[in-house]
Amino acid sequence: QVQLVESGGGVVQAGGSLRLSCAASGRTFSTYAMAWFRQAPGNERDFVASIPGSGNFVHYADSLKGRFTISRDNAENTLYLQMNSLQPADTAVYYCAAGSDATNKRVYGYNYWGQGTQVTVSS
């Protein structure tokens, strides 16, 4: 059982950067695969990046590789998403999620979700 709370969203100019955080409660955080998803109005909730409990391998949506970096600090029970070179198309609500398999890029593969944090990129 985990509770997830995202933070770090806001408004940024195109080309800027943001770092999102996801704080997790519970003593078994290090055993969970973690992921970031995002959802823009009128769109499905899409995969952004994922990382296993060990943090030894990561996955990214093909279109985001090179701009976004996922990481975790198991000692602090925190997941991060560093977002660089942001574009208006990145505007969305960003969600963190916990599950059992970091190779799963579908929303159905994750059991626990945060409330989301809004990221708005202006042109």
Short description:
This protein is an all-beta fold. It has strands spanning 4-7, 10-13, 18-24, 33-39, 46-51, 59-60, 68-73, 78-83, 92-99, 110-113, 117-122.
Number of strands: 11
- Shape, principal axes of CA atoms: globular
- Major sheet description: 7 strands, mixed
> How much strand content do the residues show?
over 45%
Q: Could you give the order of the helices and strands?
A: EEEEEEEEEEE
Helicity level, as a percent range?
Answer: under 10%
- Intertermini distance: 40 Å
- Unreliable stretches: none
- Structural class, judged by helices and strands? mainly beta
Mean pLDDT: 96
Q: Tell me the radius of gyration.
A: 13 Å
Number of helices: 0
Give your account of this protein's structure.
- The structure is a single chain.
- The mean pLDDT is 96.
- The protein is built from no helices and eleven strands.
- Strands 2, 4, 5, 6, 9, 10 and 11 form a seven-stranded mixed sheet that branches.
- A hairpin with a 7-residue loop joins strand 5 and strand 6.
- It is globular and about 40 Å long.
- The chain has strands at 4-7, 10-13, 18-24, 33-39, 46-51, 59-60, 68-73, 78-83, 92-99, 110-113, 117-122.
- The chain is mainly beta.
